[in-house]
Write a structure and sequence with these properties.
Layout lengths: L9 E6 L10 E6 L4 E5 L10 E5 L8 E2 L6 H22 L3 H4 L8 H36 L5 E6 L6 E2 L5 E2 L1
Antiparallel strand pairs: 1-2, 1-5, 2-3, 3-4, 4-6, 7-8
């Protein structure tokens, strides 16, 4: 049976283990009583789903990182340019069917379904691996500080996680 937590009232914060970069896949909720809850958030998709909640004896209050204004515009433009050039370069040297299977010409339903299933299975396996990797990375950090994760239950947010400058609410 899934242990669903009725209510945690507090403020969410991003955390960092090296005081430089945000620890992806995790955020911390600090209640008014000072209790700390680690929430596993692997997908940044705006959805209101149940998320795993953990507690630990290690205090993350010193590791809270404030989000800064990002210099992302320059790097985003550079990334688009580099990605476009890299895509053209790879298109010349790699056959089209390397990543997605045989070309579906003439149209064959089974080839199309198998290509879509390969794409879906590889995406799901990547996301599961990423979830496992992020949890192990946090557990390794906690082991170095002689602490461990304790599963508390699942939680669903009743209010948005943050509100963007354009008014969009991110759950």
């Amino acid at each position: 049976m899934v242990n669903v937590i009725k209510s945690i009232v507090g403020e969410p914060y991003n955390i960092s283990v090296n005081h430089k970069r945000i620890l992806k896949g995790w955020y911390i909720i600090i209640t008014k009583q000072g209790e700390e809850y680690l929430v596993q958030r692997n997908l940044s998709l705006s959805s209101n789903v149940y998320r795993n909640v953990y507690q630990t004896t290690f205090s993350f209050k010193e590791l809270i990182i404030k989000s800064k204004k990002d210099k992302g515009t320059y790097f985003a433009i550079l990334a688009i340019f580099v990605g476009g050039m890299l895509a053209r370069f790879l298109r010349v040297f790699l056959p089209v069917d390397t990543f997605f299977g045989d070309i579906n010409m003439p149209v064959n339903v089974w080839v199309g379904i198998s290509n879509i299933l390969i794409l879906l299975l590889s995406t799901v396996s990547y996301l599961l691996f990423l979830k496992f990797y992020r949890k192990k990375k946090l557990e390794k950090f906690l082991q170095q500080h002689e602490s461990s994760l304790t599963y508390v239950g699942k939680i669903r947010s009743k209010s948005y996680f943050k509100k963007l400058s354009n008014g969009v609410e991110v759950w």
